[in-house]
Amino acid sequence: MSKSNILIGILAGTAIGATLGVLFAPDKGINTRQKIADEAMAAKDKIADTAMGVKKRVVNTVSAKKQTLDEEVETLISNTSYKVEDIIETLEKKLKDLKEKNKKLQKPPL
Description:
The chain has 110 residues and is mostly helical. It has one domain (3-104). 90% of the residues lie in helices and 0% in strands. It has two helices and no strands. The termini are far apart.
């Protein structure tokens, strides 16, 4: 279970507990309703703050991972480029050798 789910669960439990406490406390109906409304607003604000914190962490994590991925792609492209250059040089040498062998095998025209 992730930390954000646990935190949301704790906040929801706190809000439910406070609401139940207000409902069972002896007080006038209007006072009870006002307390419930106040507790609901406080819980809403806490959940909104928590959601904003989670969003910021996700954005930061995604940005960091994207940067790392971009760097790894650049490194891979660079390494591949060097290897391709080596392959081309090897193929050019082989082609040169083959051309020389081919010249030796050719008979002069009659």
